[in-house]
Amino acid sequence: MRRGETPLGGVQDTGGELVLRREAGALVLAGESSRYGKPLRVDFAEGRAAHRRRFGGGRGQLIARACGLAAGVTPSVVDATAGLGRDAFVLASLGAEVLLIERVAQIHALLEDGLVRAASDADTAEIVARMHLAHGDATRELAALVAASGIAPQVVHLDPMFPHREKSALVKKEMRLFRELAGDDDDAPRLLEAALDVATHRVVVKRPRKAPPIAGPAPQHVIEGKTSRYDLYVHRSLKI
Question: Taking the mean position of all CA atoms in its chain, how far away is CA 126?
């Protein structure tokens, strides 16, 4: 292990440990490239996030429609499974105040680093000022984390780990890394229950298009895309 690298919780594969390290001015999470691919980083100013910000389709995007962003309506959103912050960044770029909750310490560190770097970029500073990061387990602490943030949870967005695919070759290397760190989100039903208790207007759950809903109450509405869908659990309408 080189100086400046940090082992992550004993997570290993045959090629060695996953490590956090600085690379080209950014914090990255890296492991054996044949298994995990390129080092993982959070970048809101360049790459995929920048392309989606410019050409993603604005409030016509599935996630925006699912979360209720419409003309004159910009709800506050709690992203209780923040991951790499991509969905939260889209919502914040459309004007929403977003609380990002991430329970995996290593992913939280990548998010924190990405937000700091984006705050110094003229194209993204205003957007990430609407993104508020918290470290904690939303399954057990959602109400407390929301209360501490001061953000009214009109919409709670959930994107639990997708079910395993039978053909492992189809699983992206990035997703392998997430599974190593976070597991399979077997507690997703409890997370949905917590979200329903906290959201004032709706809970939005991202799922593979053909996957069953999370165990629990049935969604009232579904918005489908080509490969994924959003299950909507609605308490009341979002109004202007």
Answer: 19
173/108 same-domain check: yes
Other C-beta atoms closer than 10 Å to the C-beta of 164 total 11
Do 47 and 11 lie in one domain? The reply is no
pLDDT at 67 over 60: yes
Whether the Cβ atoms of residue 131 and residue 88 lie closer than 8 Å to each other: yes
Measured CA to CA, the distance from residue 150 to residue 11 in angstroms comes to 35
Instruction: Specify whether 2 is located in the same domain as 66.
Output: no
Which pLDDT value is given to residue 13?
Answer: 38
**pLDDT tens digits, residue range 102-153?**
999 999 999 999 999 999 999 999 999 999 999 999 999 999 999 999 999 9
Q: If 0-12 CB within 10 Å is exposed, 13-18 middle and 19+ buried, where does residue 177 land? A: buried
State what percent of residues in the chain have pLDDT above 90.
64
Structural domain including 28 reads: 1-41
21 is in an annotated binding site: no
Cα separations (Å) of 22 from 2, 19, 50? 11, 10, 22
Could you tell me which of 103, 137, 112, 127 has the C-alpha nearest to residue 42? 112
**Same domain? 74 vs 28:** no
Residue 159 among known ligand-binding residues = yes
pTM for the structure as a whole: 0.86
Contact between residue 13 and residue 32 where contact means Cβ atoms under 8 Å apart:
yes
Neighbours of 37 (CB within 10 A): 15
- 41 assigned to a ligand binding site: no
